[in-house]
Amino acid sequence: MMKHVLNVLLGVLVATFAQPALAQASLAPMTAAQVATVRAIYGGARSATGKRLEVGPVQPGSESEWVGVFVPRATTGKIGSEGMALDTINNLLYTPNRTYTIASFPFTEAMLAGEEDARVLYNADNPDLGAFASHGGKLILYHGWSDPHISPLNTIDYYERIGVRMGAGTRDGFVRMFLLPAMGHCGGGEGPSAFPLLAGLMAWVENGHAPDMLVAHRKPPMPMGPPPGAGPDGAPKDGGNKDGHDGPPPEMIREMMAREAELAQLGPRARPIYAYPQIAQYNGAGSVNNAASFHAVTPAAVNGISDWAGARP
């Protein structure tokens, strides 16, 4: 069902951008239950009273990255988010360890409060970077708008909270943030995701030239074969651990290999990525795959600080 929903949803997005009048008609094949499912994914984790339990959910336009994460590639397949979530929930976040399933996990503010010890240890969300800045440190934050694992709203929220804590002027003296359209988790995805991050950072630290624009390219997919101990399709061989190899489970390996094969069919694309809050706008002429066809604009200001149950002052 969800694969059908994604196909319809992607059609709606295309219709909305290309010819808005067609968008409503494109909704016809979706049932009320399917629409509710998609809205629930967009809505993110919430308590029974509607309080947000995470900084932000996945963003519209990220749907192609849902396959294998929230949606199985085949009707009999598994979803990667279930294994990743339960491994963390049951073996890392709480003491003593828990035995939750997806169905039994309590989406409550009390649950979130119980994660605090782990949050202090693992989360890098302290907005007071005074010591780092006083040593001349420079920080470049980046995030893909299509990241299905960690919402880009997390990074925007953190960037804004640095400004609240230290002052926007001080923050802008040592922090830049770049948001990449259609980039997945840390990289990859259908959009340009290869950009000279290290060169930009070095020019800033060594020569004082803060990066305000970087050109990103759609990078060729990395050849991906099965890891040691797995067969050609990622399935476990005889012996080894329960998955047949060290590393991600076979289902995830197969999904990653299939996704890389899909991305290999995409052609080259370059796009200027401007430091937040600027964005790239099409000039109205020229190839959309050419970075020169875009220019910088500054959209209307928005409040990027998230109102959620775990927010700190």
Describe the structure.
- The chain contains 11 helices and 6 strands.
- It has 313 residues and is α+β, with helices and mostly antiparallel strands.
- It has 2 domains: 2-120, no CATH class; 127-222 and 262-297, no CATH class.
- The strands form 3 sheets. The chain has a two-stranded parallel ribbon with strand order 1-2. It has a two-stranded antiparallel sheet with strand order 3-4. A two-stranded antiparallel ribbon has the order 5-6.
- The model is unreliable at 1-27 and 239-245 (pLDDT under 50).
Taking pLDDT < 50 over at least 5 consecutive residues as the criterion, the unreliable ranges are 1-27, 239-245
Please report the total strand number as a whole number.
Answer: 6
Distance between the termini: 42 Å
Q: Quickly count the helices.
A: 11
What would the keywords be for this entry?
two-stranded antiparallel ribbon, globular, 313 residues, disordered N terminus, 36% helix, alpha+beta, two-stranded parallel ribbon, single chain, 2 domains
